[in-house]
Amino acid sequence: NKEASVAEVYLQACKLVGVVPVSYFIRNLDCTIMTLTHHGLGPLGCKALAIALSDMHINTLELADNHIQAEGAKYLVEMLRANFTIQHLDLSNNYLRSAGAEYVAKMLLDNISLKSIKLSNGFTDDDAKYFADSFSSNSRIKELDISHNEFCGKGGEHLGQLLNNEGLEVLDLSWNHLRMKGAVAFCAGLKVNMMLKHLDLSWNGFGNEGALAMGEALKFNNTLVHLNLNNNRLTNEGISLLCRGLEFNDTLRVLLLQLAFNSITVEGALALVNVVKNTPKTALEEINMCQNVLVNENFVHLLELTCQEHPGLDVQYGGVGGFIAKKPPKRVDPMKVIQDYLDKRKLRLWDFFRNIDKDGTMRVPVADFRKAVQQSSIPLDRYQIEELIQRLDRDRTGMVDYR
Fold it and tell me: How far apart are CA 353 and CA 394, in angstroms?
């Protein structure tokens, strides 16, 4: 049968090149997904694999962390030039270096089946040129992951040209070194791109100048729906520069701005909600500033007003800081409101929490808790919800522990 002959070809190839066969590969010859991550193939193991794969009909090949190097990539791309079934390929963490980048880029010019490829390999600025060239004429690939490389300013220019591509819909460029120069060059390409929907630029050190360039791009780009700018050294100034672009944008739905080293305060948070409030055609429905942004009473009030006009809006932030002392004297205890609500429906508080706590850990992320209460018909306003969260998460762990 077919599998037996492929196994035979593989075993002979291993013998020929002098490597130990991978038993997992032989056991799974009938699968359409071949996951061979962390198998220590090396260049020659990759050669034997490539020989066997020529006769196989798989659609996903995962080869991350196999130290295949440029030599292994060469054997692999020769096979991929003639293969018409592999649609998803992961070559991350394989020490491909510049020679490997060149081999892969050339293969992308010929291959007609690949739809997604992962290439986190510590590639440098010069290597970005190979990908820019190959993607300018390959519009079949929909998803590209080139995170965890070393693309800097010059790399940003090449990658900006890569955005001339007419097929790419998802691009992950996180954990590179684009910084201000690379951000400006890349955003120039984003301005005219007409296909990209999901873009991850987290951990790139954009700074406020990068935020200015992104704001400019968002004025013109009308396809992006999901933008991740987490951990990019933005301050309130950067947020306000970003907002200048958001005022003109009517497609972006999700904006992530979480920061490990936070320099956004309530001022930046207010600017973001104001943009949504004052832009009737905005598509924004999720803004995530995460756990360290503390807001105030004015913000909660503005969000309340904005949500009347944009009921689908979900803004995630750390909590309300320093206003509990000024709360109006006649405010009903939010815990009692929840208890009354549950009593009327003959439910237990336990049921309410278990419904949110899908993993059953008895701990619920603050953002999930906030969302669940907002989406339920419990008669609590945002002010009361924040008061409740402060009580349930006194130490600001970002989790509500309901034991």
Answer: 18
Percent of the chain's residues with pLDDT above 70: 96
Q: Which residues contact 96 (CB under 8 A, 6 or more apart)?
A: 68, 69, 70, 73, 103, 104, 119, 121, 123
* Domain presence at residue 218: no
Boundary of a domain, candidates 84, 103, 122: 122
Residue 329 confidence (pLDDT) = 47
Q: Where are the alpha helices (DSSP H) in 83-206?
A: 97-110, 125-136, 153-162, 179-192
- Assess if residue 298 is contained within a domain: no
Neighbouring-strand partners of residue 402: none
Residue 49: inside a domain: yes
Q: What is the CATH number of the domain that holds 397?
A: 1.10.238
| Cα separation, 38 vs 41, whole angstroms | 8
Provide the domain count of the chain.
2
Beta-sheet pairing, 363-365 with 254-256: unpaired
DSSP letter at 124 equals B
Q: Looking at 59, 89, 122, which one is the last position of a domain?
A: 122
Min mean pLDDT across 40-44, 54-58, 159-163 is at 54-58
Residues facing residue 227 across a β-bridge: 199, 255
Range with lowest mean pLDDT among 45-49, 104-108, 163-167, 361-365: 361-365
Q: What domain range includes position 373?
A: 334-401
All residues at 6 or more sequence positions from 48 whose CB lies less than 8 Å from its CB, including other chains: 10, 13, 14, 16, 17, 19, 21
User: Does residue 14 belong to any structural domain of this protein?
Assistant: yes
For residue range 287-345, list pLDDT tens digits in order: 998 667 888 889 999 999 999 899 889 898 887 874 443 444 456 788 888 888 888 88
Q: How would DSSP label each residue in 25-62?
A: HHHTTT-SEEE-TT---HHHHHHHHHHHHTT---SEEE
As a whole number of angstroms, the distance between CA 246 and CA 241 comes to 9
**β-strand 399-401 against 363-365: which pairing, if any?**
antiparallel
Beta-carbon contacts of 358 under 8 Å, excluding residues fewer than 6 positions away, are none
Name the residue among 220, 210, 332, 318 with its Cα closest to residue 269: 318
Q: What pTM did the predictor assign?
A: 0.84
More confident residue, 184 or 357: 184
